[in-house]
Design brief:
With 171 residues, the chain is of the alpha/beta class. It has one domain: Glutaredoxin (3-Layer(aba) Sandwich), CATH 3.40.30.10. It is 43% helix and 20% strand. Strands 1-4-3-2-5-6 form a six-stranded mixed sheet. The longest helix has 24 residues. About 8% of the residues have low confidence.
Length: 171
């Protein structure tokens, strides 16, 4: 009986380790701008917050916990946070995924693999210089789109986010 219980615990431990390792390796998807464009232009009653950041960007690293906290607070309010890493694809395993694990980032994280920024930044916002951090909030059902370049003033960001929070039962 004792041996069976130990074997069962060992198997369960191995299973959970494999699941955790697998989910961590699946944590960051590499996407192209076309994929991001589809996310942004997908008409839904959910507000999408797209936050552009990088592990090498000090202001990004400083404000990322604010976005993660908001992501958790607004999880049941039809607001979706998408954290778009601007790191190099070669740095996913050595920098991006360890950063996400160390900082307990549970929001969806993707890495944008589009080295020619000039080909797409105007589609995010025509006045965006390309500086990060940067954040786009969009709700196509409400016909609202707001862009913040640089570190967002959290009081202004929260004010805008609340205005773009869908009311339950509203279409």
């Amino acid at each position: 009986m004792f041996l069976k219980r130990n074997i069962l615990m060992l198997i369960l431990g191995l299973y959970l380790s494999v699941i955790q390792a697998f989910s961590q390796s699946e944590k960051v998807r590499v996407i192209r701008f076309e994929d991001l464009r589809k996310e942004i232009n997908h008409v839904t009653d959910t507000t999408l917050v797209v936050h552009f950041w990088a592990t090498w960007c000090k202001p990004c690293v400083e404000e990322l916990p604010n976005y993660e906290k908001l992501s958790q607070e607004y999880a049941k309010k039809r607001i979706r946070f998408l954290m778009v890493s601007m790191d190099f694809p070669k740095d996913i395993k050595d920098k991006v995924e360890p950063f996400i694990a160390k900082n307990s980032i549970n929001s969806e994280v993707v890495l944008l693999d589009e080295p020619d920024y000039n080909a797409w930044i105007d589609e995010i916002d025509k006045d965006w210089s390309g500086t990060i951090p940067a954040t786009l909030m969009v709700n196509l059902t409400m016909r609202k789109r707001i862009f913040f370049e640089g570190q967002a003033k959290m009081d202004k960001f929260l004010e805008e986010l609340k205005e773009m929070t869908p009311v339950a039962g509203e279409n």
